[in-house]
Amino acid sequence: KITLAITYSGSPKGVNFTGIPLLLGWMNYGSGVFVASEPAGSAGWYPVNDHPLDKATYSFHITVPEPFVVAANGLLEETTDNGDTTTYVWEMRQPMASYLTTVNIDDFVLRTDEGPGGLLIRNYFPTTIADKAEIDFARTGDMIAFFEEAFGPYPFEAYGVVVADQGFPFALETQSLTLFARDWITGDGSIEEAVAHELSHQWFGNSVSLSKWEDIWLNEGFATYSSWLWAEHDQGSDALNQMVDQMVEYVSGSPDYFIAPGNPPANDLFNGGVYVRGGLTLHALRLTVGDETFFEIMSTYYDRYQFSNATTDDFIALSEEISGQDLGDLFDSWLYGEKLPALPE
Ligand code: ARG
Ligand code: ZN
Hints:
Blueprint: E1 14-17, E2 20-28, E3 33-36, E4 56-65, E5 69-72, E6 75-81, E7 85-96, E8 103-106, E9 108-114, E10 120-126, H1 130-136, H2 140-151, E11 158-159, E12 161-164, E13 178-181, H3 192-200, E14 208-210, H4 217-235, H5 237-253, H6 272-289, H7 291-305, E15 308-310, H8 312-323, H9 328-336
Parallel strand pairs: 10-11, 12-13, 14-15
Antiparallel strand pairs: 1-2, 2-3, 4-7, 5-8, 6-7, 9-10
Helix pairs in contact: 2-3, 3-4, 4-5, 4-6, 5-6, 6-7, 6-9, 7-8
Bound molecules: arginine and zinc ion.
Protein backbone atom coordinates (compact mmCIF):
# COMPACT_ATOMS: atom_id res chain seq x y z
CA LYS A 1 0.00 0.00 0.00
CA ILE A 2 1.11 3.55 -0.66
CA THR A 3 -0.27 6.89 0.46
CA LEU A 4 -0.68 9.62 -2.13
CA ALA A 5 -1.12 13.28 -1.24
CA ILE A 6 -2.49 15.03 -4.32
CA THR A 7 -2.30 18.82 -4.58
CA TYR A 8 -4.44 20.30 -7.32
CA SER A 9 -6.14 23.52 -8.26
CA GLY A 10 -8.56 24.80 -10.86
CA SER A 11 -12.13 25.80 -11.56
CA PRO A 12 -14.70 23.09 -10.86
CA LYS A 13 -16.86 22.26 -13.86
CA GLY A 14 -19.85 20.16 -14.86
CA VAL A 15 -19.41 16.79 -16.56
CA ASN A 16 -21.38 15.26 -19.45
CA PHE A 17 -22.79 11.77 -19.12
CA THR A 18 -24.52 9.91 -21.96
CA GLY A 19 -28.26 9.69 -21.51
CA ILE A 20 -28.51 12.44 -18.88
CA PRO A 21 -29.52 15.73 -20.51
CA LEU A 22 -28.00 17.92 -17.76
CA LEU A 23 -24.42 18.44 -16.75
CA LEU A 24 -23.43 16.53 -13.62
CA GLY A 25 -21.29 17.60 -10.69
CA TRP A 26 -20.45 21.14 -9.64
CA MET A 27 -23.20 23.59 -10.65
CA ASN A 28 -22.66 27.28 -10.14
CA TYR A 29 -26.01 29.05 -10.62
CA GLY A 30 -24.69 32.54 -10.05
CA SER A 31 -26.14 33.17 -6.62
CA GLY A 32 -24.97 29.82 -5.27
CA VAL A 33 -23.65 26.32 -5.91
CA PHE A 34 -25.09 22.82 -5.70
CA VAL A 35 -23.34 19.53 -6.48
CA ALA A 36 -25.21 16.51 -7.90
CA SER A 37 -22.91 13.91 -9.41
CA GLU A 38 -24.72 10.62 -9.86
CA PRO A 39 -23.34 8.69 -11.58
CA ALA A 40 -20.09 10.28 -12.74
CA GLY A 41 -19.80 14.00 -11.96
CA SER A 42 -17.37 14.09 -9.04
CA ALA A 43 -14.22 13.97 -11.14
CA GLY A 44 -15.21 17.43 -12.43
CA TRP A 45 -14.25 19.00 -9.12
CA TYR A 46 -11.73 16.73 -7.39
CA PRO A 47 -9.29 14.02 -8.42
CA VAL A 48 -10.94 10.69 -7.62
CA ASN A 49 -11.30 7.11 -8.77
CA ASP A 50 -14.96 7.85 -9.53
CA HIS A 51 -16.42 4.37 -8.94
CA PRO A 52 -18.76 3.31 -6.10
CA LEU A 53 -16.52 0.38 -5.19
CA ASP A 54 -13.84 2.83 -4.07
CA LYS A 55 -15.54 4.31 -1.00
CA ALA A 56 -13.67 6.64 1.37
CA THR A 57 -14.16 8.95 4.33
CA TYR A 58 -14.01 12.66 3.51
CA SER A 59 -13.19 16.02 5.08
CA PHE A 60 -14.15 19.21 3.31
CA HIS A 61 -12.46 22.55 4.12
CA ILE A 62 -14.33 25.22 2.21
CA THR A 63 -13.77 28.96 2.38
CA VAL A 64 -16.50 31.29 1.15
CA PRO A 65 -17.02 35.06 1.19
CA GLU A 66 -19.66 36.62 3.46
CA PRO A 67 -22.64 36.03 3.61
CA PHE A 68 -22.44 32.52 2.15
CA VAL A 69 -23.08 29.32 4.09
CA VAL A 70 -21.66 25.89 3.15
CA ALA A 71 -23.62 22.64 3.57
CA ALA A 72 -21.80 19.40 2.80
CA ASN A 73 -21.87 15.74 3.85
CA GLY A 74 -21.64 14.64 7.48
CA LEU A 75 -21.07 16.84 10.51
CA LEU A 76 -20.12 20.50 10.54
CA GLU A 77 -17.06 20.41 12.81
CA GLU A 78 -15.77 23.96 12.60
CA THR A 79 -16.52 27.39 11.24
CA THR A 80 -13.69 29.89 11.29
CA ASP A 81 -14.31 33.58 10.79
CA ASN A 82 -11.41 34.96 8.75
CA GLY A 83 -12.75 38.53 8.47
CA ASP A 84 -14.54 38.80 5.16
CA THR A 85 -14.50 35.05 4.55
CA THR A 86 -15.59 32.01 6.59
CA THR A 87 -14.07 28.53 6.49
CA TYR A 88 -16.40 25.56 7.00
CA VAL A 89 -15.05 22.13 7.94
CA TRP A 90 -17.41 19.21 7.24
CA GLU A 91 -16.57 15.59 8.07
CA MET A 92 -18.06 12.38 6.69
CA ARG A 93 -16.62 9.65 8.88
CA GLN A 94 -18.43 6.72 7.25
CA PRO A 95 -17.37 5.31 3.89
CA MET A 96 -18.92 7.26 1.01
CA ALA A 97 -19.09 6.56 -2.73
CA SER A 98 -17.69 9.47 -4.73
CA TYR A 99 -21.00 10.21 -6.52
CA LEU A 100 -22.62 10.94 -3.13
CA THR A 101 -20.39 13.86 -2.18
CA THR A 102 -22.06 17.26 -2.21
CA VAL A 103 -21.16 20.86 -1.50
CA ASN A 104 -23.85 23.52 -1.43
CA ILE A 105 -23.18 27.22 -1.12
CA ASP A 106 -25.85 29.87 -0.70
CA ASP A 107 -27.29 32.25 1.83
CA PHE A 108 -29.13 29.32 3.51
CA VAL A 109 -31.26 29.30 6.66
CA LEU A 110 -30.52 26.38 8.95
CA ARG A 111 -33.48 24.60 10.61
CA THR A 112 -32.73 21.75 12.97
CA ASP A 113 -34.82 18.95 14.39
CA GLU A 114 -34.25 15.75 16.33
CA GLY A 115 -34.65 12.18 15.07
CA PRO A 116 -34.80 8.89 17.01
CA GLY A 117 -32.18 8.55 19.74
CA GLY A 118 -31.39 12.26 19.51
CA LEU A 119 -30.12 12.01 15.90
CA LEU A 120 -29.33 15.47 14.56
CA ILE A 121 -31.51 16.55 11.65
CA ARG A 122 -30.22 19.68 9.96
CA ASN A 123 -31.98 21.19 6.97
CA TYR A 124 -30.59 24.00 4.82
CA PHE A 125 -33.29 26.01 3.05
CA PRO A 126 -33.33 29.09 0.82
CA THR A 127 -34.58 31.97 3.01
CA THR A 128 -37.61 32.76 0.85
CA ILE A 129 -39.14 29.25 1.07
CA ALA A 130 -37.83 28.08 4.46
CA ASP A 131 -41.23 28.00 6.21
CA LYS A 132 -42.87 25.99 3.43
CA ALA A 133 -39.90 23.64 3.20
CA GLU A 134 -40.03 23.00 6.93
CA ILE A 135 -43.57 21.65 6.51
CA ASP A 136 -42.54 19.34 3.64
CA PHE A 137 -39.75 17.74 5.72
CA ALA A 138 -41.53 17.75 9.09
CA ARG A 139 -42.00 13.96 9.19
CA THR A 140 -38.36 13.06 8.56
CA GLY A 141 -37.79 11.88 12.16
CA ASP A 142 -40.83 9.56 12.03
CA MET A 143 -39.65 8.14 8.73
CA ILE A 144 -36.17 7.46 10.15
CA ALA A 145 -37.76 5.65 13.09
CA PHE A 146 -39.85 3.52 10.71
CA PHE A 147 -36.93 2.60 8.44
CA GLU A 148 -34.77 1.78 11.47
CA GLU A 149 -37.42 -0.64 12.62
CA ALA A 150 -37.77 -2.20 9.17
CA PHE A 151 -34.13 -2.32 8.04
CA GLY A 152 -31.74 -1.52 10.91
CA PRO A 153 -29.97 1.50 12.44
CA TYR A 154 -29.64 4.73 10.45
CA PRO A 155 -26.04 4.57 9.17
CA PHE A 156 -24.68 8.12 9.53
CA GLU A 157 -24.06 10.75 12.23
CA ALA A 158 -26.73 13.19 11.05
CA TYR A 159 -29.43 13.53 8.41
CA GLY A 160 -31.18 16.40 6.68
CA VAL A 161 -31.80 17.97 3.32
CA VAL A 162 -30.45 20.91 1.43
CA VAL A 163 -32.80 22.70 -0.95
CA ALA A 164 -30.97 24.41 -3.78
CA ASP A 165 -32.38 27.76 -4.90
CA GLN A 166 -32.60 26.36 -8.42
CA GLY A 167 -34.93 24.27 -10.55
CA PHE A 168 -33.89 20.81 -11.74
CA PRO A 169 -36.00 17.74 -12.34
CA PHE A 170 -34.63 15.32 -9.75
CA ALA A 171 -33.58 14.91 -6.12
CA LEU A 172 -30.40 13.17 -5.06
CA GLU A 173 -29.67 11.16 -1.93
CA THR A 174 -26.26 12.77 -1.28
CA GLN A 175 -24.89 11.04 1.79
CA SER A 176 -26.54 12.25 5.04
CA LEU A 177 -27.72 15.45 3.28
CA THR A 178 -30.22 14.83 0.49
CA LEU A 179 -30.38 17.46 -2.23
CA PHE A 180 -33.74 18.78 -3.45
CA ALA A 181 -34.50 21.49 -5.99
CA ARG A 182 -36.59 24.49 -4.97
CA ASP A 183 -39.49 23.51 -7.25
CA TRP A 184 -40.11 20.36 -5.16
CA ILE A 185 -41.25 22.51 -2.25
CA THR A 186 -45.04 22.66 -1.79
CA GLY A 187 -45.52 23.63 1.83
CA ASP A 188 -48.33 21.06 2.14
CA GLY A 189 -46.43 17.81 2.75
CA SER A 190 -47.51 16.32 -0.56
CA ILE A 191 -43.93 15.40 -1.59
CA GLU A 192 -43.80 12.79 1.17
CA GLU A 193 -43.16 9.91 -1.25
CA ALA A 194 -40.01 11.60 -2.56
CA VAL A 195 -38.91 12.55 0.97
CA ALA A 196 -39.19 8.89 2.05
CA HIS A 197 -37.57 7.64 -1.19
CA GLU A 198 -34.45 9.78 -0.78
CA LEU A 199 -34.19 9.06 2.94
CA SER A 200 -34.33 5.29 2.39
CA HIS A 201 -31.37 5.54 0.00
CA GLN A 202 -29.23 6.24 3.08
CA TRP A 203 -29.70 2.52 3.87
CA PHE A 204 -29.93 1.22 0.29
CA GLY A 205 -27.54 2.90 -2.09
CA ASN A 206 -25.41 4.82 0.39
CA SER A 207 -24.57 2.41 3.21
CA VAL A 208 -25.15 -0.68 1.06
CA SER A 209 -23.84 0.48 -2.32
CA LEU A 210 -24.01 -1.16 -5.68
CA SER A 211 -20.83 -2.70 -7.11
CA LYS A 212 -21.69 -1.95 -10.73
CA TRP A 213 -24.13 0.52 -12.28
CA GLU A 214 -25.96 -2.32 -14.08
CA ASP A 215 -27.41 -3.12 -10.62
CA ILE A 216 -28.94 0.36 -10.16
CA TRP A 217 -32.31 -1.26 -9.29
CA LEU A 218 -30.65 -2.16 -5.95
CA ASN A 219 -30.77 1.59 -5.31
CA GLU A 220 -33.87 2.82 -7.12
CA GLY A 221 -36.12 -0.24 -6.84
CA PHE A 222 -35.35 -0.47 -3.12
CA ALA A 223 -35.98 3.24 -2.51
CA THR A 224 -39.20 3.15 -4.52
CA TYR A 225 -40.47 0.16 -2.52
CA SER A 226 -39.33 1.77 0.74
CA SER A 227 -41.52 4.78 0.01
CA TRP A 228 -44.48 2.42 -0.52
CA LEU A 229 -43.64 0.71 2.77
CA TRP A 230 -43.80 4.09 4.48
CA ALA A 231 -47.22 4.70 2.90
CA GLU A 232 -48.35 1.27 4.12
CA HIS A 233 -47.07 2.00 7.63
CA ASP A 234 -48.64 5.44 7.69
CA GLN A 235 -51.94 4.84 5.88
CA GLY A 236 -52.52 1.09 6.14
CA SER A 237 -52.28 -1.89 3.83
CA ASP A 238 -55.05 -0.70 1.51
CA ALA A 239 -52.85 2.24 0.57
CA LEU A 240 -50.04 -0.12 -0.42
CA ASN A 241 -52.35 -2.40 -2.37
CA GLN A 242 -53.82 0.54 -4.25
CA MET A 243 -50.36 1.80 -5.15
CA VAL A 244 -49.25 -1.64 -6.30
CA ASP A 245 -52.37 -2.09 -8.47
CA GLN A 246 -51.88 1.32 -10.00
CA MET A 247 -48.19 0.66 -10.70
CA VAL A 248 -48.95 -2.70 -12.31
CA GLU A 249 -51.43 -0.91 -14.55
CA TYR A 250 -48.87 1.78 -15.51
CA VAL A 251 -46.12 -0.75 -16.19
CA SER A 252 -48.27 -3.09 -18.24
CA GLY A 253 -49.75 -0.13 -20.13
CA SER A 254 -46.35 1.27 -21.19
CA PRO A 255 -43.97 -1.69 -21.54
CA ASP A 256 -41.55 0.33 -23.70
CA TYR A 257 -41.15 2.91 -20.96
CA PHE A 258 -41.10 0.55 -17.96
CA ILE A 259 -38.51 -1.91 -19.27
CA ALA A 260 -37.02 -4.77 -17.23
CA PRO A 261 -35.00 -3.28 -14.34
CA GLY A 262 -31.99 -5.59 -14.49
CA ASN A 263 -29.02 -4.51 -16.66
CA PRO A 264 -30.49 -1.23 -17.99
CA PRO A 265 -28.80 0.36 -21.02
CA ALA A 266 -25.80 2.51 -20.01
CA ASN A 267 -27.42 5.56 -21.60
CA ASP A 268 -30.72 5.03 -19.76
CA LEU A 269 -29.70 4.09 -16.21
CA PHE A 270 -32.57 5.89 -14.46
CA ASN A 271 -35.41 4.60 -16.61
CA GLY A 272 -38.93 4.09 -15.23
CA GLY A 273 -38.58 0.30 -15.13
CA VAL A 274 -35.60 0.50 -12.76
CA TYR A 275 -37.76 2.45 -10.30
CA VAL A 276 -41.26 1.04 -10.62
CA ARG A 277 -40.69 -2.51 -11.86
CA GLY A 278 -37.69 -2.63 -9.48
CA GLY A 279 -40.04 -1.76 -6.60
CA LEU A 280 -42.59 -4.33 -7.79
CA THR A 281 -39.82 -6.95 -7.83
CA LEU A 282 -39.43 -6.54 -4.06
CA HIS A 283 -43.19 -6.75 -3.66
CA ALA A 284 -43.22 -10.00 -5.67
CA LEU A 285 -40.47 -11.35 -3.39
CA ARG A 286 -42.50 -10.36 -0.32
CA LEU A 287 -45.64 -12.09 -1.62
CA THR A 288 -43.58 -15.21 -2.41
CA VAL A 289 -41.75 -15.60 0.92
CA GLY A 290 -44.23 -13.94 3.30
CA ASP A 291 -43.86 -10.80 5.41
CA GLU A 292 -41.72 -12.18 8.19
CA THR A 293 -39.12 -13.73 5.88
CA PHE A 294 -39.18 -10.70 3.59
CA PHE A 295 -38.30 -8.28 6.39
CA GLU A 296 -35.67 -10.68 7.66
CA ILE A 297 -34.15 -10.68 4.17
CA MET A 298 -34.14 -6.85 4.05
CA SER A 299 -32.57 -6.40 7.49
CA THR A 300 -30.01 -9.19 7.03
CA TYR A 301 -29.00 -7.79 3.64
CA TYR A 302 -28.54 -4.37 5.24
CA ASP A 303 -26.63 -5.80 8.19
CA ARG A 304 -24.31 -7.90 6.04
CA TYR A 305 -23.43 -5.29 3.42
CA GLN A 306 -23.65 -2.01 5.38
CA PHE A 307 -20.81 0.47 4.70
CA SER A 308 -19.87 -1.78 1.81
CA ASN A 309 -21.01 -2.95 -1.63
CA ALA A 310 -23.29 -5.70 -2.93
CA THR A 311 -24.50 -7.12 -6.23
CA THR A 312 -27.87 -8.41 -7.46
CA ASP A 313 -26.44 -11.92 -7.18
CA ASP A 314 -25.56 -11.26 -3.51
CA PHE A 315 -29.16 -10.19 -2.86
CA ILE A 316 -30.60 -13.24 -4.63
CA ALA A 317 -28.25 -15.62 -2.80
CA LEU A 318 -29.14 -14.06 0.55
CA SER A 319 -32.88 -14.23 -0.22
CA GLU A 320 -32.53 -17.93 -1.03
CA GLU A 321 -30.44 -18.54 2.08
CA ILE A 322 -32.98 -16.92 4.39
CA SER A 323 -36.16 -18.22 2.77
CA GLY A 324 -34.81 -21.68 2.00
CA GLN A 325 -36.53 -21.36 -1.39
CA ASP A 326 -35.20 -21.47 -4.93
CA LEU A 327 -35.90 -17.93 -6.16
CA GLY A 328 -33.92 -18.00 -9.41
CA ASP A 329 -36.97 -18.03 -11.68
CA LEU A 330 -38.71 -15.30 -9.70
CA PHE A 331 -35.79 -12.88 -9.94
CA ASP A 332 -35.04 -13.85 -13.54
CA SER A 333 -38.52 -13.04 -14.74
CA TRP A 334 -38.93 -9.86 -12.67
CA LEU A 335 -35.48 -8.40 -13.32
CA TYR A 336 -34.65 -9.57 -16.82
CA GLY A 337 -37.82 -10.88 -18.50
CA GLU A 338 -39.21 -8.67 -21.24
CA LYS A 339 -42.81 -9.20 -20.17
CA LEU A 340 -44.08 -8.03 -16.78
CA PRO A 341 -44.72 -11.19 -14.73
CA ALA A 342 -47.97 -11.63 -12.82
CA LEU A 343 -47.68 -10.86 -9.09
CA PRO A 344 -47.92 -13.97 -6.90
CA GLU A 345 -51.26 -14.34 -5.05
N1 ARG B 1 -30.81 8.81 -7.34
C1 ARG B 1 -31.75 9.83 -7.77
C2 ARG B 1 -33.12 9.43 -7.24
O1 ARG B 1 -33.25 9.00 -6.18
C3 ARG B 1 -31.78 9.95 -9.25
C4 ARG B 1 -30.72 10.78 -9.81
C5 ARG B 1 -30.73 10.77 -11.29
N2 ARG B 1 -29.53 11.41 -11.75
C6 ARG B 1 -29.51 12.45 -12.53
N3 ARG B 1 -28.37 13.01 -12.72
N4 ARG B 1 -30.57 12.90 -13.08
O2 ARG B 1 -34.13 9.48 -7.87
ZN1 ZN C 1 -33.74 7.17 -5.92
